[in-house]
What we know:
There is one protein chain. The chain is 33% helix and 22% strand. The protein has four helices and five strands. The protein starts with 6 loop residues before the first helix and ends with a helix. 12% of the residues are buried.
Amino acid sequence: MKYYKTEKGKKNILFTKWKNRGLIGNYEEIYKRYLDINQCELCNIELCQGQKSNGKCMDHNHETGEFRNVVCRKCNVSKSDRMKSKSNTSGYKNLGYHKTRKQWYYNKIIKGKRICIWRKNKIEILCIKFCGILLYKY
């Protein structure tokens, strides 16, 4: 437990968090930039570590994973590419991965009825989704 309180431990925790959230890039360079920046790169508000309203966030493209800026939470939430579901890590609409169940799901409302299909394999879920599109044109 002492390791996670060291600088190296804190750094590794951040790298793991960034990887899990889909951030791609040179983590060492991004880390240096993260430490050096004290103001949001979009609105210039002062950033405070750990605070909800103006804490540091790593803005990245949610389709490619490419890092863009260190921003405040408000600017990060207002980005247009974050408008899809937070649980959707697949890159496809209506698909997601449930971490606890360790399964992929396809969730769609058709004629007022919710359909939710679960599979362990992402390819199976994609096949179900695209077969539905071809067969039912929804």
